Amino acid sequence: MKKLYETAMINHGGRDGEVQAPNGSMKMKIEAPSIHAEGTNPEQLFAAGYASCFNGAVHHMLEEHKIESDAEVKARVSLYQLDDGGYQIGVILEVSLPGVEKEEAQKVVEEANEFCPYSKATKGNIDVEVKLV
Q1: 109 in helix, strand or coil?
Q2: Strand ranges of the sheet holding 87-96, from the earlier edge strand across to the other edge
Q3: What is the value of pTM for the model shown?
């Protein structure tokens, strides 16, 4: 395995603090999930990363199949409290492939799910549902 890229983010204060890139290129306030929060939260950041990564995989598969579409991916990340008091996340990926026939779009989505590094990382660890919308 050949490393292509590595990045880092530094957190101070947990869910009531901030994250920043070591080079100063990004800094964000972190708050617990709430409709009144002014900052972001780990679930939003995970959703942003997964949506972007999965859409990149979708675009890769579209190119492989020589299909054109303005693909869009919405990642819905939920935070659940477990019976033992712990927490777990779940994900629903909603994929839109305008102009692509349903059967062909489903194939692209399935292949993207096998290709996406986030999907590989979460497989068997959390519930992930992929929907063609």
Answers
A1: helix
A2: 72-81, 87-96, 127-132
A3: 0.92
- Two tokens, residue 112: 């993207």
CB 9 within 8 A of CB 20: yes
pLDDT of residue 36: 83
Average pLDDT, the chain: 96
Q: Tell me: the pLDDT tens digits for 35-87?
A: 788 899 999 999 999 999 999 999 999 999 999 999 999 999 999 999 999 99
Read off the DSSP letter of residue 40. B
Sign of the Cα torsion 71, 56, 130, 80 reads: negative
- 48 Cβ contact list (under 8 Å, min separation 6): 75
Q: How far apart are CA 94 and CA 43, in angstroms?
A: 16
The one-letter amino acid code at 128 reads V
